[in-house]
User: Fold these one by one.
Assistant:
Number 1:
Amino acid sequence: MAGGVVLAEELKSMIMSLVRRVLPQHARTSIKRALGLPTTRLDDDWSILRCIGPLERPHVVLDVGAHHGWFFHCWQDWCPDARVHAFEPFPESFTAMAKQYGADSRVTLCQAAVGDARGSLTLNVLTESKVSKSFLEPRAETWRRVGYPTGAIETVTVPVTTIDAYVGEKQIDRVYLLKIDVQGYELHVLRGAIESLPRVDHIFVEAGIQRLYEGAPSFAEVFEFLTDRGFHLMTMRAWHRGNQALVETDMLFRRDELAPPGDPNRERYYLEFK
């Protein structure tokens, strides 16, 4: 039974992928309206972002650590007018992403990592967790403690750019959302974006609670870096392996000047983190 469910989900994914490639966005929207369906939706994987969208105007999203493109795929399902610049250094992942989204005029793909200086670096690829590629060495003890196997570690040399350099070259004036998923390299990415941060509205960043990589910052250090540079934390979520020992957290920041005034009719609001 479980195998049948998995097969059905894979078939559904293949059909939806084909529809997206064949039908332009306006045609898909018209069909949804005719069927009485919501014209856009945000996948539950990214429900934390509901407080900043959907945005019904052209805007720029930078996806740093795009892997196969799932994040920006979901964002554009919700905000079809987004113009995405996606960064992925690992050749295998970039090829898969290019095959799926290379023909989409709303997406610009960059086969490079993002850091604090342009050049090249050695990327560590965990053969049993290929979504967990990092420029930092994994801490074997921590990986064992959280119950994740790393497998053998392979390496590949990849090009590196910076947000400041890229934004300057592409003449991007405003970034609505900067998404960062770089396995311990968060502060390097942010240091390479110092000149651009005043033109970034929101930052969505994954950071460690458990130190999975040598020299990786904690989520608190990422928080302090951004709050010191004019951002405030809007909301966050964290996950664990079923034992209540939190492993990583996703944090959503907004530039301070974008915060609306408080509600004079209520003393406080509560957010529940599940």
Number 2:
Amino acid sequence: MSYSLVRPLLFALPPEAAHAVTLGALDLLHRLRLDRLAFGSRVDAPVEAMGLTFPNRVGLAAGLDKNGDHVESLAALGFGFLELGTVTPAPQPGNPKPRLFRLAASRALVNRMGFNSKGLGHLRARLEAARRRCPVGVNIGRNKDTPDERAVDDYLQGLRAVHDLADYVAVNVSSPNTPGLRGMQASDVLNHLLGALAAERKQLAAGGRAVPLVLKVAPDLDEGQIRAIADAVAAHGINGVIATNTTVSREGVERERLAGETGGLSGAPLAARAREVLASFRDALPDSVTLIASGGLMNPEQALARRRAGADLVQLYTGLIYRGPGLVGACARALVHD
């Protein structure tokens, strides 16, 4: 069935309910072994990055499967990698509902989920049980009630918990929905955090494998902030940067009825800024640092534009809501020969 026929039914539901229904339907198709019939075969065009082999360049961004409950069914959509989370050390409910809003005319979402999470223990158990068809990264964050002076401890706890199971670990200091989180992108705070994580990774790797570390950044950065973050990434041996998270800007959506809702904006209005930030990080970072493009990727042409702006890999989320699962293969095919 074409997604264009299903989408009006999903959009008749509140966004968070539609999210749950969609994931439940994907799980059912997977259990019935109908997912390949529904979505076709994965585009296999392997690439190497961060010491890992990715079946193709197109991944799932963090936020869609926060707790690792749908790894197998999401992989069946043809992704080259999945990123789970953001996961927090202790379970927490996130912000009160409603906390997810569609700006349909702009092909955008506003979310203020607030790191709703079942916690590290749950995600770890789900990862141990899952059969993987592609690399799986884990995006880690801090609990809302953790004091700023102890925030680094939350990230260290996250790294320890998933080091032996995650193919890479993404460090989220850029969500606008946890008080004080974006302040961790400031140079002194970020250097302290990345230094602590790099030292902890070295200790954990004493037995063998050192998990790649990736930093996820905001789009709401000026050139000076980008340079300072890039310097910290290079100084501490961080393997990659995800550019970008959601934005607090409402440029281009001012006339939308729900544009005034608090939270991070994703989707088409973010595309231009996310590409600019990506290109700035490519200029500021050594070629050895992997760049993962995220934010506003709504079609194969945009995926190709991010690749040409310096991305090694790309991630989808809001584009899936508006275009459906066929977007995965379309983007992967566009990137095969680039």
Number 3:
Amino acid sequence: MRAILLAAGLGTRLRPITNTIQKCLVEYDKRPLLDIWLYQLSIHGIGPFLVNTHYMPKQVEKYVKASDYTDKVTLSYEGKLLGTAGTLVSNMDFFQNNDGMLIHADNYCISDFSEFIQAHKDRPKECLMTMMTFKTDAPSSCGIVRLDDKGVVLDFFEKSDSTHGNIANGAVYILSGDFMEIIKSDFNNAFDFSVDILPYFMGRIYTYYNKVYHRDIGTVESYNLSKKYHKNTFKKQANRYEK
């Protein structure tokens, strides 16, 4: 399964760290975040990859060229940010009419991606995509979902100040070919995936709950918490899936 990793953002919430480094390259024991993503996805048989760039693109290009994944990664530079939906629309052909993954690569995530793919294959027939969810300790900074008893999204509250629970959208998706056909025909001008697309698919989004670890590293405090987890647990959790 192919995957688009969204990695072009400015990382404004993570300043001053991102004044000198692209957010997707912030380090965990000297290992870039993007490397952690590519490692995990690869050991689950996922790839090749498309990574979009904009802010500090030369840093990302340098990392990819020197990485173990250089032959698996296509870089797509955006002179002007296309938005999370715009990048998908512009690179739809990358998926070759098959199901594919769309990932916000500026989150720290450890998960069983093979189990995630199987959940997508077993999704209810009315669902066109599968969203990874996680339990957040900061609901107001996330997109919170309300689910039915089958795990299908009924409501989506994007960074709402109201209390709607703590099960959040992890911004890791598997999109079906049927879903992408609808996007091609009806959402060509969409910019933000969460705002311009997701609300139109309530009742047709299945979910997979990440039982391992997922954190939005949008702030320095949150980034430091994820680094603490990585130092203590990453090798144990991630390496268990390596074949």
Number 4:
Amino acid sequence: MTALVVALGGAYGVHLLYTAVAFGWRGVQPGPRLRRRRRPADRFHDWLVQAGLGDHRLGELIGAAALLVAVGAVLGWMVFGGELAPAAVGVAFAVVPALAARAGRERRRAGARESWPRLLEELRIKTTTLGRSIPQALFEVGRRAPQEMQPAFEVARREWLLSTDFERTLDVLRSRLADATADTVCETLLVAHQIGGNDLDRCLAALIEDRVMDLQGRKDAASRQAGARFARSFTLVVPLLMALVGMSIGDGRAAYHSPTGQVLVVVAIALMAVCWTWAGRIMRLPEERRVFVGAGGEA
């Protein structure tokens, strides 16, 4: 029995040595380490970066939400009175920073989608026609990127000047941009930089065509949804106007102070939130998932 255990241990050691030399596998597991799914914390960090809040601390966002809760509660008490309705209004105000950040995120992502075809075309021309090195061309293109994207390229450029490690530089860039297209571009440039070859022009041309088709498809979908998105605003505007009108009729304001009125106000706010969320979900266009993630986040 002891001889069998020793033989199995020796065979497994030979397996580890061979796979480490032949395939570059690391660790004591039988095969290569599989990439894990991204953690919620990593996805949340990407969301903050895409919204332009990557440099803000979570405590600052929580503090802003708490302040809006207090403001909403005061306004709710001035309009509806009681305790339950002001609390519900305060909770509703707490989501305002998240909604504003989401709107900023969509605006920044739309700007990036608009810019990537042009940036990729410039990158292709500089690397293939003008003979620039890949790092030099990348940073030159970054200076002509949209204002929201330029800080990421600048941080990556500083990393390159300090380390001259292009893989690490691209990890910094994709972490700062947190964008699926940026991940693909960085991986393409990394492979071309490491192994060379004449396929960079073809790969960039194919990527440009893919980005243009994706952009055009999203624009077409958004134009078809324009009327529905306008109608979505009525889920908030109409109930609020009806509440204000009800306050001005007879003893409408006093009705909100009653226990039944307080419960109905809370139910109405909840229904508004459900309708708004549901309408936004069914009109949401599919988002690209990040595939190539370096040191900036685990895959």
